[in-house]
Fold this sequence. Notes:
The chain is an all-beta fold. It has no helices and 11 strands. The strands form 2 sheets. Strands 2, 4, 5, 6, 9, 10 and 11 form a 7-stranded mixed β-sheet that branches. A 4-stranded antiparallel β-sheet has the order 1-3-8-7, with no helix packed on it. About 30% of the residues are buried.
Amino acid sequence: QVQLVESGGGLVQPGGSLRLSCAASGSISDINTMGWYRQAPGKQRELVAAISSGGRTNYADSVKGRFTISRDNAKNTVYLQMNSLKPEDTAVYFCKLEDFVYRNNYWGQGTQVTVSS
């Protein structure tokens, strides 16, 4: 069974920074994509950023230049460095792992990010 454990959310002022972490454990293949999604109240869950096991990245237009996704394959951990945060970044952030060998998707429990003065 695969588990994803997220950490790093919290309350930050506009313009501030936060770093999210997501550690995956269990039976995971080497061919996967890990990513961050977010869901604000009353809105659909949306992709924030994703990174493949080969290092290819993908970002939502709204976060390009402000957020950076990275991963440590040896630790099965993905990070999201969020800079220049805006109130509209406020949401629950979810980690997702797509395993292309075992053909399964896994989600973390979510971590709240609130950007407010």
